[in-house]
């Protein structure tokens, strides 16, 4: 009984194993069949891809081959062209070599001819020198004068003739220029001066402050002089309190500071409270008012002249001109006068009057800078105008009105001329009497240095120099040349306003005595 179930178990297990083995064999055959199918399909597909790649490679090869052949043809063509050019150049060089050889032969021939000519010329020169020596010897024997003496006399005579002809030519040119230009120039200048009318004021370095009585002097001085010291320290002005009745003298080279001191004194005396703290307060307030007034004067001046878009700093400098003077001429009035004359003259000449008026107003701003500078006022004014955006024509006119730089526009000479006219007219400026007298003496002595001058007189306030010459020593031609020489020396050595006319007078007098 126990063996029967065990047998059954083995039988079942064996049946299961036999069925699995049979199934595995069947499955194995199926996998093998499918594997062979897949391999065959892969082989076919590989063959197809291989054929395609081979075809593509062949096409690419053919394309590259065609391109290579085209490049080779182009390269060969270029090489052929280069060879043709080289051959052509070689032919040209050969031709040039032949030409050079031919020219060398011609040059050698010309050298030989030139050598023969030089030898012939040297022989002729030697013959001429011998003949010249004989002629000189004969002339010296006849004239009883050496060759050097004759040459010196001839040169002197030629110089005299050249001077006479030059003087005549110069006089002719001057007369012709005067005929053509004098009338029109006079017309323009006269019209310009006549159409400009401004007030003229004289500024000094001293101002006088009038007081009602001398008791106020003590209050201004203060205890142990503390008030006057505080006032001088605050304003920078020397206050002179002396025995002059009802007057206090304010001395300072700066008119702005003098005006601040004068107005401060006026307010202090009117208010009655005079002590150091009050003095500093009043001076600060007056200084602020003066600065505002300077700005207002500059703005009003620009508006009156029709000048627009002026930088505020330039406008302030224009206002500061009110308190500056040059040789006694108020700088603001001078600048207004120059501006109006520049506009008038520019209009007469067909130029832009607005630019000319602007340059005329600003031409002296270099005289009123905030900081002292070593530059001439014309160059300093030009730099200030450039700094604040003025046009190049205006800047050049400012810098060139005293010939510090080259003039680059027609506005520059107009400003220069109008500045000279404004400063040189009678009554515009004043000079120290001693300097004025010394200038006239130097002017007369300058003319006396020339030979043949007997007397010289400076007349018309130094505007004309009359020179008397001796008729025996100075001829008419030499008189013309002498006038030009003296004028040139005055321009070179002297400084003077306006212009100086030089008049040379030559007078021949014959005296007879009847008995």
Keywords:
three-stranded antiparallel β-sheet, single chain, 8 strands, 515 residues, three-stranded mixed β-sheet, mainly alpha
Radius of gyration: 54 Å
Instruction: Please report the distance between the alpha carbons of the first and last residues.
Output: 217 Å
Q: Count the beta strands.
A: 8
Tell me the number of helical segments per DSSP (H or I, 4 or more residues long): 14
The helix fraction, in percent, is 55-70%
Order of helices and strands: HHEHHEEHHHEEHHHHHHEEHE
Overall pLDDT metric: 81
Q: β content, as a range?
A: 5-15%
Describe the structure.
There is one protein chain. The radius of gyration is 54 Å and the shape is flat. It is mainly alpha-helical and about 525 residues long. The longest helix has about 140 residues, at about 5-145. Helix content is about 70%, strand content about 5%. Strand 4 (about 325) and strand 5 form a beta hairpin. It has helices at about 5-145, 145-195, 215-220, 225-235, 255-270, 275-305, 310-320, 330-350, 355-360, 375-385, 390-400, 410-425, 435-450, 475-495; strands at about 205-210, 240, 245-250, 325, 330, 455-460, 465-470, 500-505. It has a three-stranded antiparallel sheet with strand order 1-3-2, with helices on one face. A three-stranded mixed sheet has the order 6-7-8, with helices on one face. Strands 4-5 form a two-stranded antiparallel sheet. The protein contains 14 helices and eight strands. Helix 5 (about 255-270) crosses helix 6, helix 9 (about 355-360) packs across helix 11 (about 390-400) and helix 10 (about 375-385) runs antiparallel to helix 11. The chain starts with a helix and ends in a 9-residue tail after the last strand.
